[in-house]
Automatic annotation (TrEMBL):
TM helices/strands, residue ranges: 12-34, 40-59, 186-210, 241-260, 272-292
Matching Pfam families: bPH_5
Organism per entry: Clostridium aciditolerans
Name of the protein this chain belongs to: PH domain-containing protein
InterPro entries, sorted: Bacterial_PH-related
Residue span, Bacterial Pleckstrin homology domain: 64-163
């Protein structure tokens, strides 16, 4: 098996710089904000954001491509990436250099590097493992293309030719038959979010109508979950109903974003449903905590 390192580019430094900038900004906002709901949201955002950034930093600095008699392997440290591309599925390849022209669907990247799924100009839906624009190799398969940037580019290409894989020009088509409601990986989380949002919206109203809420309820909290503003039960109920409506609006926005994304790459569409899932869970937990504390 022959292993090729990826060409070292500016990707890691770009990710590191963005991480530092956003962490500083979010930390400043966190210390300026005096409300429990917003500070909780910022803390969760920072945790998820830094895990996301670290994931792509590790991949960017440790990406390798290996070739044996049957497959091409794309690997990274800690097993974060372990992609197998059988030679039997590769129809051909294209070469490119210079800025990457396309739209990122998932992952990380800009015009100089890309890790994740993108729509590349004249190539189509592509799983990108490109750390430099010096030499890019696009591999064509039936389901998706792959973008690689190996060192010793000529030797890598020579090994492809030895496997009877040659340069090829192809066209791509947009998938017009998008039925996300038939996809369990998308539909099940969608239903879960819809149920959670309904509970967030309806529960305080029902409790208010049946006089199950105290006459005075907390409306705002400091980051230590100490009530700093009280209002009537009616104000509390309508405030949390607004939270539910807000979550429902986010759910539908993410649905249409996923629908658009699925036209190009279905797997990239799944991430959009997890944004409202995380948000709705956060608001649901906060609501339960408030109701249990101030019942």
């Amino acid at each position: 098996m022959k292993t090729y390192k990826s060409v070292k580019g500016s990707g890691v430094y770009s990710i590191l710089g963005i991480t530092a900038a956003y962490d500083i900004l979010l930390t400043i906002i966190l210390y300026m904000v005096g409300y429990y709901e917003i500070s909780t949201l910022i803390k969760i955002t920072m945790i998820v954001f830094n895990i996301y950034q670290l994931y792509y930093m590790i991949i960017s600095c440790s990406l390798t491509y290996s070739i044996d008699n049957q497959n091409i392997y794309v690997n990274s440290a800690l097993g974060l990436k372990n992609i197998v591309i059988p030679f039997s599925e590769i129809q051909g390849y294209q070469k490119a250099n210079g800025y990457i022209k396309g739209v990122r669907l998932s992952g990380y990247g800009n015009s100089k590097f890309a890790i994740g799924r993108s729509i590349i100009d004249k190539i189509g839906s592509t799983y990108m493992f490109v750390t430099s624009t010096k030499n890019i190799l696009y591999l064509r398969t039936e389901d998706i293309n792959y973008g690689l940037s190996p060192e010793n580019f000529d030797k890598f290409e020579e090994q492809l030719n030895e496997k009877c894989i040659n340069q090829l020009i192809w066209n791509y088509k947009i998938n017009k038959n998008v039925n996300l409601y038939k996809d369990k990986k998308f539909f099940v989380p969608f239903v879960i979010v819809a149920i959670i949002v309904t509970i967030i919206t309806v529960t305080p109203i029902i409790l208010y109508l049946y006089n199950k809420l105290p006459s005075m309820m907390p409306l705002n909290f400091n980051p230590q979950f100490v009530a700093i503003k009280f209002g009537t039960a009616k104000q509390f109920a309508f405030k949390h109903m607004f939270y539910g409506i807000l979550n429902m609006a986010i759910l539908f926005c993410m649905y249409y974003a996923a629908y658009f994304c699925a036209k190009y790459d279905r797997k990239s569409a799944y991430k959009f449903i997890y944004i409202p899932l995380i948000l709705s869970m956060m608001f649901f937990i906060m609501q339960v905590r408030i109701l249990l504390t101030f019942r």
